[in-house]
Amino acid sequence: MSAEVIYGKELAADLRENMKKEVFELSKKGITPSLTVVLIGHDPASESYVKGKQKASEEVGVDSNLIKLPDTTTEQELLELITDLNEDGKIHGILVQLPLPNHINEQAVIEAIDPKKDVDGFHPVNIGRMMTGKDTFYPCTPYGIVTMLRSKNITIEGKHVVIVGRSNIVGKPVGQLLLNENATVTYCHSKTKNIKQFTQAADILIVAVGRAHFITGDDMKEGAVVVDVGVNRLDNGKLTGDVDFESALEKASYITPVPRGVGPMTITMLLHNTIKSAKQFNNL
Ligand code: NAP
Predict the structure, then answer these.
(1) Is residue 1 pLDDT above 90, yes or no?
(2) Is 173 in the pocket of ligand 1 (CB under 6 A)?
(3) Is 164 in the pocket of ligand 1 (CB under 6 A)?
(4) Are 136 and 90 in contact (CB under 8 A)?
(5) Looking at ligand 1, which atom is closest to the CA of residue 164?
(6) What is the sign of the dihedral through the CA atoms of 53, 56, 62 and 68?
(7) So what's the pLDDT on residue 150?
(8) Ligand 1 atom 35: the closest Cα is on which residue?
(9) Spatial contact of 138 and 269, defined as CB atoms under 8 Å apart
(10) Atom of ligand 1 nearest to the CA of 208
(11) Domain edges within the chain
């Protein structure tokens, strides 16, 4: 078997084309969705993510403002800035790029953002809404993954989903979203014994570990749907996923590549959430 590759990049381009039209319609009502990104310090990966978010925002007509702060910024200064952004009626989405410098309490910052502007979907209020199956801002990477599965009409209900990785931004929420869709979900993590016994039982295998080629074709069952969230840079400078693509391609029925897989979907769902927020603020 050779799997069908799900290119997030192509799906993201289609979705952004529709968003462009939606933003144009909103502009006729005098509404411009507006996202403010706060970036602290000079982490190259964060700078690159932020650049990608700005470019994508411009592409669909979302107003994107970047506030760059030095890594000497105190937690108090950041919290005060967030209060100002929360109160600014022109801003619909606030995103503080993570990770933050060690002297700033990440959770305090996440909780300071108005849940109505939390387009990253990390605020406990929005996580709670997601947990209880309510409509809310879903975290962008998990929401992007579910959207990719839906785009191929892949059945989720009744399927056994195995997730390797339980981070708050990927593993845990993607499991919750798929549980909401009536999947049976198993989480694996660094303390799981004999991971292979779980991954080989997966109908849908989602890998978000951050280790190049952690999962190979041998770790999955014939016909599994494989979603590779990992982004790892090899010594030769190339990006690669957590899944060994070549061996998995032979075994899976569907597989997402790295790059051009989950990554472009993450940014697209951020735009989706920002547009959703703009509509909610305008009672649309
Ligand atoms: P993270 O916070 O570092 O979490 C990694 C998870 O993997 C943890 O739950 C950890 O278990 C587990 N793990 C680590 N070593 C393991 C092992 N040997 N066996 C089993 N589980 C193991 O990472 P993350 O933020 O979720 O990101 C994961 C990957 O996805 C990274 O490569 C990141 O760059 C990528 N990512 C991509 C996107 C995108 O848009 N494409 C978005 C976010 C992240 P413990 O909990 O037990 O420590």
Answers:
(1) no
(2) no
(3) yes
(4) no
(5) 21
(6) positive
(7) 98
(8) 230
(9) yes
(10) 28
(11) 30-114, 140-263
Decide: 126 and 136 in contact? Cβ < 8 Å. Answer: yes
Residue closest by Cα to atom 22 of ligand 1: 190
Task: Give the total residue count for the chain.
Answer: 284
The CATH class that applies to domain 140-263 reads: alpha beta
CB of 9 sitting under 6 A from ligand 1 = no
Residue nearest to atom 15 of ligand 1 (CA): 190
Q: What is the pLDDT of residue 3?
A: 97
Average pLDDT over residues 55-73: 97
Tell me how crowded residue 52 is: count the other CB atoms within 10 A of its CB.
15
Q: Yes or no: is domain 30-114 CATH 3.40.50.10860?
A: yes
87, burial (CB in 10 Å: exposed 0-12, middle 13-18, buried 19+): exposed
**Cα–Cα distance measured from residue 175 to residue 72, given in angstroms and rounded to the nearest whole number:** 36
Question: Per-residue pLDDT tens for 24-41?
Answer: 999 999 999 999 999 999
Task: Provide the token pair at 74.
Answer: 């105190």
> What's the average model confidence in pLDDT over 56-73?
97
To test the pocket of ligand 1, the residue of 98, 231, 258 to mutate (highest count of ligand atoms within 8 Å of its CB) is 231
The pLDDT mean for the chain works out to 97
Closest atom, ligand 1, to C-alpha of 45: 34
CATH fold match for the domains 30-114 and 140-263? yes
Peptide bond into 259 cis (omega under 30): yes
